[in-house]
Write a structure and sequence with these properties.
It contains 10 helices and 8 strands. It folds into 2 domains: 239 residues, Spore Coat Polysaccharide Biosynthesis Protein SpsA, Chain A; 70 residues. It is of the alpha/beta class. Helices cover 49% and strands 14% of the residues. Bound molecules: uridine-5'-diphosphate and magnesium ion (MG). The site of uridine-5'-diphosphate has 18 residues, from β1 and α3.
């Protein structure tokens, strides 16, 4: 899947760019990216993955490809999400170093040489850490809380798990390309497969050049949860521990009720307390069931082994996917 037929002249650098309805950004992006790539003085390629855009992005990308031999365009049959677009991009990229960046100019191309320099120092992954996150307040705060939560729950040390701007060396890309789970969250997979020699560089994050963010609040919450249950069973363990604590509590409550019954303790017993206690226990049981269900659903999705995405066409790609 990841072997391009023509690997004789593998480029030094590949840039992978997921695209979903970015018609207003693509030209400005290329105008900014191209001089940076030319300035590197080494053969480069750009792999655009069109994630089922319904605007003019496919035409603009086809035109970019027609005019620039270093542009590859992979087009999905429909929208599979940014993670899948990046997944496909990594499989089509042949570069010794691979940069992932956004199509909306939030990730300034001028940082690319810094990423490459850091990779040359021997890192297998370099994270672009956003100094300031533009956008609505809930995203700015939520992003930081989510990153802490993800690191605590998975035990990974990821400087900025959602920056969307990073660089990988070839060996790590090859390892990532071997995996095929559907609910993948790439920065978790990168951390998991990295030799731990990660680097981080501060990057500026600009406002989106044109159009709107493709993410709703609900989707962002889902991404964080997917990340956690894809890489950790800690939620299950936590719920087990909480369940044990509730059981211990109910044992104490029984002792207390017995004492009241025998007149050894003041008698403020009440069905209300009983109901509350039962509800607590029922609540924990339900959440335990829910957590188990989530993992079971993952296993189910895994054993079905459906492909993670469907490719419609690939421009500038000379092998068989
Ligand atoms: N994107 C994608 N598929 C999607 C959603 C987003 O390929 O389903 C791309 C999008 O075109 C952009 C990048 O992923 O290049 C980041 O998306 P966006 O700018 O909407 O996210 P934000 O910057 O708000 O985190
Ligand atoms: Mg963006």
């Amino acid at each position: 899947m990841n072997a391009r037929a023509n690997t004789n002249h593998a480029p030094a650098v590949s840039v992978v760019i997921p695209v979903y309805n970015e018609e207003g950004n693509l030209k400005a992006l290329w105008d900014e990216l191209k001089p940076v790539l030319d300035g590197l003085g080494a053969p480069c390629e750009a792999v655009f993955v069109d994630d089922g855009s319904s605007d003019r992005s496919p035409e603009i990308l086809a035109d970019l490809h027609a005019r620039n031999p270093e542009v590859t365009v992979v087009r999905f049959a429909r929208n599979f999400g940014q993670q899948m677009a990046n997944t496909a991009g990594l499989r089509f990229a042949r570069g010794k170093a691979v940069i992932i960046m956004d199509a909306d100019l939030q990730t300034p191309a001028e940082h690319i040489p810094e990423f490459l320099a850091k990779l040359r120092e021997g890192c297998d992954i370099v994270y672009g850490v956003r100094e300031r996150i533009p956008g609505p307040l809930y995203r700015r705060i939520g992003t930081r809380i989510a990153n802490r939560f993800i690191c605590a729950m998975t035990g990974f040390e990821i400087p900025d798990s959602a920056s969307g701007f990073l660089a990988l060396d070839r060996a790590l890309v090859e390892r990532v390309n071997r995996y095929n789970d559907r609910s993948r969250y790439l920065s978790g997979l990168f951390a998991w497969l990295s030799y731990g020699r990660y680097g981080a560089i501060p990057v500026t994050r600009r406002q989106r050049f044109s159009g709107e963010s493709k993410y709703t609040f609900h989707q962002l919450v889902r991404i964080v949860l997917t990340f956690v249950y894809s890489f950790s069973v800690r939620p299950l363990r936590l719920i087990l521990a909480a369940g044990a604590a509730v059981l211990a509590l109910s044992a104490a409550a029984f002792a207390w009720a017995g004492a009241v019954h025998l007149g050894l303790a003041p008698g403020a017993s009440g069905p209300a307390w009983l109901t509350a206690g039962m509800l607590t226990i029922a609540g924990f049981q339900l959440s335990a069931l829910g957590a188990a269900g989530v993992y079971t659903a993952e296993v189910y999705a895994g054993v079905r082994e459906r492909p993670s995405y469907v490719i419609w066409e690939a421009l500038g790609w000379d092998g068989t996917p």
